[in-house]
Amino acid sequence: MSQAPFDQIRITHIGGPTALIEIGQLRLLTDPTFDPAGSRYVDGPVKLSKQTDPALTVSELGAVDAILLSHDQHKDNLDPAGRAYLSQAKQILTTPAAALRLDGRTRGVAAWEKQVSALLKAGYRTITYDRRGFGNSSQPTSGYDYDTFVADLNTIMTTLDLRDAALVGHSMGTGEVAHYLGTFGTDRVSHAVFESPIPPFLLKTDDNPEGLDGSIFDGIIQGIVADRPAFQTQFLANFYNLDVTLGKRVSEEVVRYNWNVAAGASPVGTVACVSTWLTDFRKDLPRIDVPTLIIQGDADRILPFPVTGKRLHEAIKGSRLVVLEEGSHGISWTHAEEVNRALLDFLS
Q1: Nearest to 170 by CA among 196, 201, 199
Q2: Residues 293-309: pLDDT tens digits?
Q3: Is 152 a catalytic residue?
Q4: What are 25-81's pLDDT values in tens digits?
């Protein structure tokens, strides 16, 4: 994340909830509505009539990089012409529930949804991306290692010429943060955030007796190969601590959305990524010389706090540690308010 200069941001109001947001060469469109004046809609007892034409037609607008869709149920937020325009979009970001109703190109943003809105409100330019093999990214059959992952990240950093950026990673993403800083340094980075981290080194070895036994990861690989969809159901139960949080801190719809994303990921990449969890990041950590936040739940069942966050805090000099009581691995959702408060306080 970095704060964009206001002279690089241009907003064109098209009508109603629809606006074109241009940040440099990035073009974003909110809630597409392009029906002409006089269009009428009936939603139960409510009758609506559109009073003015859109300031830009679809042909005048042209292509956009992404559509930000707040919801899809009401025609004053997504009218018939706007719904037709969705087919031209490279990417559609919306709620998990809307992603289930719309086509396969549509992605809910459950993973960082609650953080992105808070960061944007605070004035931060916020960029998220899908790792290779997952989400909207391509699904190659190779490159599932942290050297390649950070090369991909570096492509984003240099292509967008990001500077004074805060790198925020969750779970496997914290490996990208550590290895990127260890490989490329901190010239473009001002802050680092590790949420539910995987570093410093997960595997138990002679020089890492605090790690986890390798047979655990062998079992995970066997479970994925035997029945990947069933494995994801079990994994999400522990990811969110559903026996404690379901219906209280996380809904069935969010769990279902996460399962859909996981099931749609590359089968090759899903298996290959397990071995990357065993990457030794200890040599990367001394190169981290920017302010660093580590935030983790003390009830993390995927990456136990004593093995990961506690040791990472000890390894990064001057790092700030926030431990969330009864926090699951998926604290971005189950403990979103606490995560946002810690993140914004750290960045300010």
Answers
A1: 196
A2: 999 999 999 999 999 99
A3: no
A4: 888 999 999 999 999 888 777 788 889 999 999 999 988 888 888 877 788 888 889
The catalytically annotated residue of 31, 300, 313, 335 is 300
Answer yes or no: 329 catalytic. Answer: yes
Q: What is the CATH number of domain 113-347?
A: 3.40.50.1820
**pTM for the full model?**
0.73
- Which residue in the block uniquely carries the two structure tokens 């959702």? 333
Cβ atoms of residues 41 and 80 within 8 Å: no
The pLDDT confidence band at residue 101, using thresholds 50, 70 and 90, is: low
Per domain, the residue ranges of the chain are 6-108, 113-347
| HEC assignment per residue over the chain | CECCCHHHEEEEEEECCEEEEEECCEEEEECCCCCCCCCEEEECCEEEECCCCCCCCHHHHCCCCEEECCCCCCCCCCCHHHHHHHHHCCCEEECHHHHHHCCCCEEECCCCHHHHHHHHHCCCECCCCCCCCCCCCCCCCCCCCHHHHHHHHHHHHHHCCCCCEEEEEECHHHHHHHHHHHHHCCCCEEEEEEECCCCCCCECECCECCCECHHHHHHHHHHHHHCHHHHHHHHHHHHCCHHHHECCCECHHHHHHHHHHHHCCCHHHHHHHHHHCCCCCCCCHHHCCCCEEEEEECCCCCCCCCCCHHHHHHHCCCCEEEEECCCCCCHHHHCHHHHHHHHHHHHC
Q: Which of 2, 170, 171, 179 is catalytic?
A: 171
Instruction: Kindly tell me if the per-residue pLDDT of 144 is higher than 70.
Output: yes
- Which member of 328, 329, 332, 335 is catalytic? 329
Question: At the top level of CATH, which class does the domain 6-108 belong to?
Answer: alpha beta
* 5 pLDDT more than 70: no
Local confidence band at 113 (pLDDT 50, 70, 90 cut-offs)? confident
pLDDT for res 269:
95
Percent of the chain with pLDDT over 70: 93
Q: Is the dihedral of CA 131, 135, 136, 142 positive or negative?
A: positive
The reply to whether 72 belongs to the active site is no
